[in-house]
Amino acid sequence: MTADQDIFKSTAPRYFSIAPGRPFLQDLAQTLAASITAEGFSVADALIYLPTRRAARALSEAFLAAAGTNAALTPHIRALGDIDEDEFLVDDIGATIEDELSLLPAISSANRRLILARLIAERERVFFDGQHRWAGAISAADELGKLLDSLYTEEVDAEKLGDIVPDGLAEHWQGSLEFLKIVTELWPDYLAEQSLSDPAARRIALIKKQTNRWLETPPNHPVIIAGTTGSTPAVGQMMKAVASFPFGCVVLPGLDFWSPSHVWDAVDEPHPQSGLKALIDNLDVLRGDIRPWPGSGLGNIPPRTDLVTMALRPAGASDDWREWAENTKADRSAITNGTEGLSLVEAKDEEREASIIALKLREVVNQPDRTAMLVTPDRDLARRVAIKMRRWDVIVDDSAGAPFANTPCGIFLRLVAAWLSDVANPVHLMAMLDHSRFGGGLNGKDRARAIGEMDRALRGLRPHKNIEGLRKRLEQRGDITPPLATLFSTLEQAAALWPDASESFSDRFESHLRASEILCESDEEQGEDRLWRGDDGEEGASLLAILRDSLGLIQNDQSTEYPEIFTRLIAGGAVRRREPAHPRLSILGPLEARMQSADVVILGGLNESVWPRDAAIDPFLSRPMRRELGLPSPERRIGLAAHDFAQLSASPEVMLVRSTRAGGKPTKPSRWIVRLKNILKGASALDQVDQTATYEGLADLLDKPSEIALIGAPSPRPPVEARPTAFPVTAIEKLLRDPYAIYAQRILRLRKLDPLGEEFDARHVGNLFHKIMEDYAKAPEPDAAAGKVKLLQLFDEYAPEYGYEPHHHAFWRKRVEDACAWLARWDEEQRELGAPAVLEGKGEYTFQLDGTDYTLSARADRIDMRATGGAFIIDYKTGDPPTLNMQQKFSPQLSLTGFIVEKGGFSSLGAAPVDGFEYIKVLDRKEKDRPSRATGDDAAKLIADTRDGLFSLLLHFSNAENAYISQPRPQYTDSFGDYDHLARRRERNAQGGGDE
Q1: For residues 451 and 693, what is the distance between their CA atoms, to the nearest angstrom?
Q2: Which of 845, 847, 603 is nearest to 728 (CA)?
Q3: CA 821 to CA 926: how far, in whole Å?
C-alpha cells in the first residue's frame, strides 16, 4: 500500500470520515488491516471502539472477509455505547481490572429501577392520599432513571438543580425540587450507604480513567474509535486523546465535506450534521482538518448524497434550493444519477405498507447473493412484515425481537395475574382458559369440552367475588361433568395459593408463578414444562429470576394492583427467536442499522412521531431548565435520527416507505420525506422516484382472488313443515320487522349467548321491577307512602339476586326511589278501578288457519279486572314504550295479548272483554311523557286489526315460496339484530347492496 493509504503515516491528530452510502465497516476493515500490518503489527494487536455491539460483531465478520482464505485473528473490538436509551448502559468497554476495582460496584438495573420506584412511592404517599401507587411509581422510575442517566453522562452535578429558579414558576418549581430530592439527595445517599455506584456514573468514570491512563502513557499499539458522534463529554475526550496517539485515529460517519460555509454555519440541532458539528467544535478542530478515509471513494460529492444533503439543508440555508433546481433542470444527468436506485412509496395504510415492504424483500430473495434490510423504529411494522414474509416460508430476523409481555408465556402470566386478583371475574377467567398454555389437568379434547361448558355456565351476570361464587354458578346451571370437575379442581388449587391482602408482594409473586404452573399442567405434561418451554418460556424464566431478588423492595402495595405492577415489571424484556432466519434479509431498528449495509435498504415508517419521533418531553425539566443545566435539548435525538436517515438513504438502492393512514386516521409524512418531495418537485423529478402506483398495484394483485362472486341477501325458504306454528306475542313483532331472525332462532334453533360477566343495567332493573311489582300487587299497602317504603324494601331484598351492588347506588338509587314513589301512587289509583287478576301469568290460544293449527301465547305482567267486568292489560317498561302508531304497525304485543284474553286464553279469567291496555313507564318519568294506552272502542279496533294482520302474516309464511328476509322494511331497520352477522348485513352494505 502507498504512504497515502497508510493512515498511521499521516500526522496527528488523525481524524477521518467515511462517506455516506459506503459500506462503512467493510471500508474500515480493509484499510485498517492494510495499515496495521504495514506498521509491523498484527490485526489482533489493534483495539477498536464502535458505538454498538451489533456493529462490533459485524466488524469482526468484515475483518475475516478481508482476510480471505487466510487464517486470521480479529482485533479487540469494544462497544462504547451511544446516547440512545439502554445502549449506553449495557456494553462493556473493556476497562482494566485495576480500574474496575478502583470503583464501587454498580447497582443492578433491576434494583435501581425498584429502589427509585420505592422512593417515588414514598414521595407520592406524602404528597397525595397516603396510598402507595406502585405501578405508576415504576413508570415514573423509568423516567427518573433517564434523567439520572442524562445527568451522569453529561457530567452535570445534580445539586445544580437547586440553583434553577425559573421566572414566574418559583412556587411550582419549589414543589418539583422537593420531589427531585430523590435525585439530589436520596439516591446518592442510598448508593453511599450501600457502597454502590450508579451504572451510568460508573461507566463514565471507567471511560475517563482509561483516557487519563492513555494520556499518561500512550499505548504502543493501534487504537481506533470509529462510527460514533461522541455524544457524551467523556467519549469526546477519549476521541481527542486517541486521535493524537502514535497509532491512533478517529473515523467519523458521513461528515459533510461539501456544503459551503454558510450552510455549515446554519446547521441546527434537528439537522443530520448537528452531532458531528458539535463534536468537531468540542475536539477543537476544523471541518477541513478531517480527511477522507482511504478507499472510501471520497472525492466529488456522490449524486445521491448531493440530493439528500440538499433536501435536508437547514432552514436558514434553504434559499439555495431554487438555484439548485434550475441547475438541475439545465443538466438532467445530475438528478438522474441522484435518483437512480431511489424509490418512494406512500401506501394507503399500515397494512398495505407492510405488504409492499414484504414484496420488496421477496424480490431480493429471488436475486441470488443480494442482501436487503428493513430499517424502521416502528416495531409494529417490523412484526407485520415478518409475519407477511411467512406466506412464502421466509423467516426474517427482527433484531428487536418480540416483547416478552406479548409472547405466549408472557400473555399467559398476565392473564393468570388478572384472574388471581379477581377469581370470580368471568372475562378474566375465560381469557385465561382459552389460552394455549392452559392445561387444566386434561387432554386436548376434554379440555375443550370443559372450557365450553364453563363458558356457557358463566354467561350473564357475574358470580359473587370468590371461588365459591364460581362453584355455585356451575351448580345452578346443571350437572358438572367429569372434565369440568377436573378443570374446576385445578382452578381451586391455583386460587388457594393466592395470599390475602396483608401478605407481601413477594408472596403474591411466588404464588402467582406456582399457580401458573398448576394451571398449565395437562394430563400428560407437568405444568412447569409447559409454561417455561420455548424461547419465550426460557426468556421469561430468566427475566423473572432476575426480578425475584429485588421484589422485597415493593412494600405496602395494594393486592388489587398486582396485575398492573407485574405487567410493568416485565415490560422491556424481549424474546429473540433462535429459529433459523434467512441469511440475506434482516429487520433492524435505526440504532442497530448504524454502519450496517445491504444491497437494498428499505426505510419504513417514515411518518412524523414515528421516524423521527416527537421531541421527548422531559416530565421533570423544561427546555430552558435543561439548557441552563447544560443538558442536551430534546431536538438532539432528532438530529441523530436525521443522521441515520441521511446515511441510510445514500445507499445505492433505497426504498422509502410510509403509510398515509394509520389506525384509521391520516398521518403526517416525515419532515425528511416532505423536504425530499419538495426538492424533487422543484427539479421536475418526483415522477422518477414515486413508485406508489406500481407497488400498490402489486400489493393488490398479491391478495386479489381469482374471481369475486357477489352473494345476495339470504332468502331462506324452508319447507312448510319446518316452519314454526307456535309464537309468543313478542315474536310477532320480530316476524314483522326481521323474519330472518325468526328463521335463525326458531327454525335453525340458534340462540344468542348472554355476555360474560354482564354488568347490572337497565334490563336487569326491568326484570327486578317486574318481580317487585308482582309481589307488591299480591299484598299492597293501604296508602302510597307506606307503599313506597314496601317497594323499596322489596327492591333491597331482591336486588342482589339481579346483580345490584352497593357501588350501583350512585347511579340508580335516586331513580329507583322516584319510581317506587310513583308506582305506589299509581297502584293505589288502579285499585280504585279494579283488582289484579293475573300477575306474571301465561295465557295461550290455539286456532286454525288453512288447515294448520297455530298457538299464540303471552306472559302478561299484570291484568286487572275492572268493575265493568272487562280486563285491563298492563305491561311495565323501564325504557320508552312504543307509541300507539308503532303498536298498530310493528309492536302488537298488548293488542295480541288482548286477543288471547278475549278468547279465554288466560284460565284464571276465562273469556273476557278487554277494556284497554297500557304500557307503564317505570323509570325516569316526566310530565311531558304521553300515556301509551288504548281503551274502549280504540282498543277493540286495534285488537281486531292486529288479529287480522296476524292471520295474514301467518298465511304469508305458510307458503313455501315466501322467504324469511332480513329486515325487509328499510324505514324500520335497526343496527342491533342478534342475527345480522349471519344475514351478512354489514357485508352487503359495504358492497352497496343495502338490505335488499
Answers
A1: 49
A2: 845
A3: 14
Three-point CA angle 852, 856, 859, nearest 5°: 165
Block mean pLDDT (10 aa), the chain, length 996:
74 93 92 92 94 89 81 84 46 68 88 92 63 83 91 90 68 74 90 93 91 92 92 91 96 92 91 93 92 79 88 83 78 85 96 96 94 95 94 88 92 97 93 96 93 92 84 85 94 94 92 97 93 93 91 87 94 83 92 91 96 83 84 87 94 96 94 94 90 94 82 89 94 91 94 86 88 91 91 92 86 91 92 92 94 94 92 90 77 92 92 93 79 88 93 94 86 72 77 49
What secondary structure does DSSP assign to 432-479, as a single string? HHTSTT--TTS-HHHHHHHHHHHHHHTBSB---SSHHHHHHHHHHTS-
The Cα 344–Cα 673 span in angstroms is 9
542 and 419 in a single domain? The answer is: yes
The DSSP code for 747 is: I
Is 95 in the same domain as 122?
Answer: no
Same domain, 553 and 677: no
d(CA 549, CA 112): 12
Tell me, what CATH number does 684's domain have?
A: 3.40.50.300
Do 889 and 947 belong to one domain?
yes
Q: Helix 762-778 crosses helix 809-831 at what angle (to 10 degrees)?
A: 40
Residue finishing a domain among 575, 599, 619: 575
What residue has cell string 320480530? 734
Instruction: Return the closest-CA partner of residue 536 out of 409, 632, 680.
Output: 409
Cα–Cα distance, 145 to 159 (Å, whole number): 16
Q: Is 538 inside a domain boundary? A: yes
Residue 364: enclosing H or E segment and its boundaries? helix 350-365
3-class secondary-structure state, position 213: helix
Residue 656 lies in a domain: yes
Query: Residues 530, 624: one domain?
Result: no
Which sign does the torsion angle of CA 912, 916, 919, 920 carry?
negative
Return the number of other C-beta atoms located less than 10 Å from residue 719's C-beta: 8
B/e letters for 559-597, b = 16+ CB within 10 Å, e = fewer, are eebbbbbbbbbbeebbbebeeebbebbbbbbbbbbbbbb
Q: Which CATH number do you get for residue 55? A: 3.40.50
Domain boundary pick from 150, 177, 196: 196
For residue 227, give the 3-state DSSP assignment.
Answer: coil
In a domain, 839, yes or no: yes
Please tell me what DSSP assigns to residue 516.
Answer: H
Of 979, 966, 310, nearest to 680 (Cα)? 310
Pair 23, 258: CB distance under 8 Å: no
Residues 125 and 78 occupy one common structural domain: no
Same domain assignment for residues 123 and 140: yes
Domain range enclosing 293: 7-101+203-299
461 in a structural domain: yes
Taking CA atoms, 194 is separated from 111, 119, 190, 546, 793, in Å, by: 12, 15, 6, 19, 63
Cα–Cα distances (Å) from 188 to 115, 148, 208, 490, in that order, read 12, 11, 20, 48
**CATH assignment of the domain containing 857:** 3.90.320
- Which residues have CB under 8 Å from 262's CB, separation 6+? 317
Work out how many domains the chain is built from and give that number. 5
Of the candidates 632, 611, 18, which has an alpha carbon nearest to the alpha carbon of residue 278? 632
Helix (H, G, I), strand (E, B) or coil at 185: helix
N-to-C CA span, the chain: 83
Nearest to 599 by CA among 666, 637, 655: 655
Please tell me the total number of residues recorded for the chain in this structure. Answer: 996
> Contact 626/632 with Cβ under 8 angstroms?
yes
Whether residue 38 is found in the same domain as residue 184: no
Please give the grid coordinates belonging to residue 232. 457524551
